[in-house]
Amino acid sequence: MKLLVAEDEPKTGTYLQQGLTEAGFNVDRVMTGTDALQHALSEVYDLLILDVMMPGLDGWEVLRMIRAAGKNVPVLFLTARDGVEDRVKGLELGADDYLVKPFAFSELLARVRTLLRRGNSSPTQTTMRIADLEVDLLKRRAVRCGKRIDLTAKEFALLELLLRRRGEVLPKSLIASQVWDMNFDSDTNVIEVAVRRLRAKIDDEFELKLIHTARGMGYMLDAPESE
To answer: Per-residue pLDDT for 104 more than 80?
Structure first.
């Protein structure tokens, strides 16, 4: 798989290129939007990773021109800007995913692999559903059976991770690295507390339980009868 990383911050760009290369990808790296556009139009890539703020052309303009040229390659945006308007703008231009800095490399790698599994013909997903739970990824809002569920930023990040990896048992180490960007410490109960609070909001008032515990292994979100 061949990837293009467009990141103007040298340390971050090198870090991404090295990590993705070690994960088995063939990675080209550029530092300006102009170079990113040139590479994207002249080479064949399986995925583009674009920083939003770059010299020359910003990531949004690069994406707009790529889509205008008929290129349907999956695009993952990296940005320090977490406003709803920014996420909406990128997704409306045709981005496939949006990752806010700072992020854990493990989360970026998981999202890269998810996008590559989807291929370049899947529509952009801004809303996720399981059973009677609907999660709006742009507005950062969760609704179950028509009832709005108020979540903290960490609770929403945990729910989104469980949704994206639906049906998988996620170990505490993975949850810690992707939601808290830290190494798992077996002496802390932060993961258990977070899952318990999320379960209280998502499951306690409803007959169908979505969050499950695999003892000694981790946590999973699933609903067998919902497709």
So the answer is: yes
Q: Between 149 and 138, whose confidence is greater?
A: 149
Region 156-174: mean pLDDT is 87
- Give tens-digit pLDDT for 106-142: 889 988 988 887 654 444 557 889 999 999 987 888 9
DSSP readout, 47-68?
EEEEESS-SSS-HHHHHHHHHH
The pairing of strands 75-79 and 127-130 is unpaired
Do 198 and 155 form a contact (C-beta atoms < 8 A)? yes
Cis peptide before 102 (omega within 30 of 0): yes
Strands (E), the chain: 2-6, 26-30, 47-51, 75-79, 97-100, 127-130, 133-136, 141-144, 147-149, 211-214, 218-221
Which CATH number is 23's domain given? Answer: 3.40.50.2300
Domain hosting residue 12, numbered range? 2-118
Integer Cα distance of 218 and 221 in angstroms: 11
Q: Nearest 5 degrees, angle CA 80-CA 35-CA 88?
A: 35
Q: Strand pairing partners for 2? A: 26
Tallying the residues shown for the chain, one arrives at 227
Last residue of a domain, one of 65, 97, 118: 118
Query: Which tokens in the block code for residue 67?
Result: 């889509």
